[in-house]
Amino acid sequence: MPNILELKNISYSYHNLHGETQALRNISFGVGEGEFVAIVGPSGCGKTTLLSIIAGLLAPEQGTILVNNPDGSLRYPKIGYMLQRDHLFEWRTVYRNVTLGLEIHRQLTPDRLQKVDRLLEEYGLDKFRDKRPSELSGGMKQRAALIRTLALEPQLLLLDEPFSALDYQTRLMVSADICHLIREAGKTMIIITHDLAEAISLADRIIVLSGRPATVRTEMPVRLTLKDDSPLAARNAPEFQDYFTRLWEDLTHED
Amino acid sequence: MKTERRTLTRQEEFVRQHRRHHYLIAAWRILLFVLFLALWEISADTGRIDSFFFSSPSRVVLCLAEQIRTNSMLFHIGITLYETIVSFLLVFLCSLAAATVLWYSPKLSEILEPYLVVLNSLPKSALAPLFIVWLGTGTRTIIVAGMSVAIFGSVISFFTGFQQVDGEKVTLIYTLGGHRRDAFFKVILPGSVPILLSTAKVNIGLALVGVIIGEFLAARRGLGYLIIYGSQVFRLDMVITSIIVLCVIALLFYKSIQFIEHQIKIRFKM
To answer: Which residues have C-beta within 8 Å of that of residue A24, sequence separation ≥ 6?
Structure first.
């Protein structure tokens, strides 16, 4: 599996008049095409900073992000970013929300819109296209937010605790649902979460960060023997408890 | 008709109580107004207050009829309405433009902040004499006086409204590959519509205040002129009639902005 993204010694600090706070120190890891990577770490360790750097919203102070496209080109992969909340705009209909990215890129072309229509239909949202976001359920909103991201046809999806605003029960269903849809769409994904069970059930590999300044503590590949892809099946897999314990030890261990 | 006497369901009971509440409020409002008029009229007729100084409802009506007949009142009302609406619209457009520039340039807004605060707290009537010297005594001066009262507060309200829009929504625009311009037109502006409307409601009243101040000092027409003229020639009926007409105008302005607000809310299902 070729890596579509390779982080090399990324460091980043925040500055204010009282001094400098290092958030990230020498972070290096690669992400293979089609791979699902979860990043876990203590809260406030700089996970969101790391994601912002990968997304290009922040420039790293040191280090490089290497891109190795399958076709050998050096173009930065197209990135879709899902924030902690869905941020669907209430003054727009669901349809005009999901086409927002295309509108910004002035790409409201028939074939792009056709793709959006197909996604709306597949995700069961076509009945709601002229409704307002407040008329959707929590899970529907996340699906709409996913369509908004996928409409721009990103290769790499970044999810920053995208389900943290949902209640626990909805969260179990929606996180499994959304990740299933992303896998079906054949995308690569990096997800930040503080929920270890969520990380184990969704990811192919888990990267554990240390407390501030964040460094990569361990990388742990995950293989679960699954009966089906329900969120419960992953949590009932025989290996689950073992992964959980190892993650817990990595996270709480202080060097 | 068996069902006629059936007991109401909880829902019907609720609807009925809700309606009753509204009728009650409306009834009290009208009653208060009628009581005030009656008290005023009776006190004037029985000589408890001097109707030369305090007028009376009947004298106001007579005065209004006479003023309309001599064709001056409608003209003065029209002038004041025109000046107020023009200065209101100019305030809205100018402060929207200014707040937009301030939002685009955080550096500029930081530099200008103390100036805006000072200009906003300055009593604007103090500027009116200057406007007269600079611009003469015409409609232009009155409109500028009307604008001066509302504009600085309006810029500050709009700009504060822009800043209060959820920063993560702006981040969303950036994650979708948008620029500051997209953030403004897709998030900041539509997200600030409620604040634009509530500020507009305040502004229309302030523009009226400014126009009347301007007319006091520098006009030969308009309700402000009528009030000053009436007080100078001791025709207090004319003064009080003009003030009552002003009350009606203020109410109509407020109601029309409220109507526009309502229409926008329906249109965008806010």
So the answer is: A10, A11, A12, A46, A49, A50, A53, A60, A213, A214, A215
Query: Which CATH architecture describes the domain B61-267?
Result: Orthogonal Bundle (1.10)
ipTM of the assembly?
Answer: 0.82
pLDDT value for A68: 64
For the segment A46-54, the average pLDDT, to the nearest whole number, is 86
Asked if A89's CB is within 8 angstroms of B187's CB, the reply is yes
pLDDT digits (tens, 9 = 90+) for A70-96: 565 555 667 888 888 888 998 898 999
What's the pTM? 0.83
Of A100, A148, A152, Cβ closest to residue B186: A100
C-alpha to C-alpha distance for B155 and B118, rounded to whole angstroms: 13
Query: How close is the nearest chain A Cα to the Cα of B240, in Å?
Result: 46
Residues B13, B17, B18, B19, Cα dihedral to 10°:
110
Interface test with A, best of B165, B168, B172, B195 (most A CBs within 10 A): B172
Query: What domains are defined for chain A?
Result: 3-86+156-252 (3.40.50.300)
Q: Do B171 and A90 touch (CB under 8 A)?
A: no
CB within 8 Å: A101 and B177? yes
Q: Tell me the per-residue pLDDT of A243-255, one tens digit each, with 9 for 90 and over.
A: 888 888 888 876 5
Domain residues of chain B, as ranges?
A: 3-46, 61-267
